[in-house]
């Protein structure tokens, strides 16, 4: 039963925001969204900073554009990661086992979901599911190696 | 000092090929190349199987094309993974610490390396390095979540 708890903690230099939604599935999804969203936003900051340094001029218009891109890309990365983390956890609970097949199934489902959300071609959805599963499996294998 | 050892082991159903090059850096790189290369090749098999089932015809020409694509994509995935795993290990040894910054630096170096190998634009190399670092960091964070 999901408790409706909510607490935040912020510590420095290792910033860690914890939001307890009272449900492990939701916790993971929100955690994935926030952390990977932050990574996506940071990526845009690094890119835009490099572009400013490279061209040597900063304007208000450009800052606004960068801010918008940060929000957009952060939200996209966060959503993909949140859905993947949530689905992988769900698959793990359903299968009752913790191995690389969870990552494969979770990745395939995430790929299919986002593909189906953005286009209507059945073939494209299947191919994106295959790609998602393969990428998630590869990442899972790299985890064991590093 | 790298010993010139070499041994293989194959067990089923959990297939695991271990090639000992006598050096942890080389071991990881080769391991990454083989494992992720296999994932890349499997992805092509899944894709081509789906295409055959979808179109309902199999020809010798198509099988040859699929085989070629398997080798090409497997080698590409394997090379990227091997270089990343090797670089991350190298960064870990140099920094003497094991945290997400290794993944970020390793990803950035891998992105820059492959970008520099395929094109000559300095801007593109820096952007690919940023993207590589961000993706590797995101993956590292997802590891902790799942």
Automatic annotation (TrEMBL), chains A, B:
GO terms for biological process: protein import into chloroplast stroma. It comes from the Eukaryota. GO terms for molecular function: amino acid transmembrane transporter activity. It is a multi-pass membrane protein. The keyword Ribonucleoprotein does not apply. One of its GO terms (cellular component) is chloroplast outer membrane. Keywords: Membrane, Transmembrane, Transmembrane helix. The keyword Transmembrane applies. InterPro entries: Tim23-like. It is found in: Membrane. Its main location: membrane. Pfam families: Tim17. This is Outer envelope pore protein 16, chloroplastic. It comes from Eleusine coracana subsp. coracana.
